Amino acid sequence: MITAAPAEFAAALPGGGRLAGLDAGTKTIGLATCDSSWSFASAHSTIARGKFSADLAQLKAFVAKERIAGLVLGLPLNMDGTDSSRTQSVRQLARNLAPLGLPLLLWDERWSTQAVERAMIAEDLSRRTRAERVDRLAAAYILQGAIDALAHVTVPADEADVTPHDG
Q1: 157 lies in a domain?
Q2: Which end of the chain has the least Cβ crowding within 10 Å, N or C?
């Protein structure tokens, strides 16, 4: 199930569970995880993109090792909220991730990389260090935004056994 609606995503995960955030770039995929109570996101790692079958194998291993219940994929929209060519490639990636068998939430990531870059510049990190960290930190930024929104979602009782994360 792929959705942009937090309530629909939460209903697909009635028992909660760990989530993974993904920041999909053309060269890398940044990964982040959150705790099972959806409180805080942490940067995890970066996958260098290659053939999709190899990328998918790495993502499967990551999902299994980290016991991931759902995915939050950053959606790069134009500043006016419309789709761009990058948006379409990320939507295609979301469809291609179906073999993972996990609910997937598309999350607006318009300012994620810029926010992370500004924070790293404020910490006076070198360009090299920033380049090494930006994708996984952007994934954590995306995931934190999603779990903050999910904390305020109430799932109707007929859609789930539990009302997750009332905040």
Answers
A1: no
A2: C
